[in-house]
Amino acid sequence: MRRELPARLSDMIDTHCHLSSSQFDPDREAVIGRAFEAGLAAIVEVGYSLEKSRRARTLAARPDIFATAGIHPHEAGRFREQDFEEIERLARLGGTVAIGETGLDFYRDFAPADAQRTLFRRHIALALETSLPLVIHTRAASDEMIATLRETGAGRAGGSLHAFHGDPAFARGGIALGFHIGIGGGLVKDPARLRASLEGLPLERLLLETDAPYLSPPGAARRNEPANILLIARALAVALGRDVEEISRITDENARRLFRLPGAS
Ligand code: NI
Question: Is the pTM of this model over 0.85?
Answer without folding.
Answer: yes
